[in-house]
Write a structure and sequence with these properties.
Elements (H helix, E strand, L loop, with lengths): L9 E3 L3 E7 L4 E8 L6 E7 L7 E5 L11 H12 L8 E6 L5 E3 L2
Antiparallel strand pairs: 1-2, 2-3, 3-4, 4-5, 5-6, 6-7
């Protein structure tokens, strides 16, 4: 599924929908929607500098906690993420390993 001008790097439609976006600025997004949900959840991703095959997940103000976003909100947030500079201050939550598993950090 395309979100505005953004084509997912990866998508999965088992038990709902999951789309992953990667941008040239080193940021990305994970967009999910449950099987019976109308609204999306969005998390910000950033490429791990030490392990480039890993993507870290961040909590940040522009996602509005990532919950309950309509399609247009997702498109606007993807646009914002694609324009972030490298010095944007992010709060680390977890990372995605090269097998696609989310590893949570305390």
């Amino acid at each position: 599924m395309k979100f505005g001008r953004f084509e997912p790097w990866n998508e999965c439609k088992e038990d709902g929908e999951h789309y992953e976006f990667h941008f040239r600025n080193g940021y990305g997004a994970s967009v999910t929607r449950g099987q019976h949900d109308e609204l999306f959840e969005l998390d910000v991703l950033k490429r791990n500098r030490r392990y480039p095959r890993y993507w870290d997940i961040y909590d940040m103000p522009i996602t509005n906690d990532g919950m309950n976003m309509e399609y247009d909100d997702v498109v606007n947030t993807l646009e914002d993420i694609s324009r972030l500079s490298d010095d944007y201050d992010l709060l680390h939550k977890s990372f995605v390993d090269h097998d696609g598993n989310v590893v949570f950090v305390d």
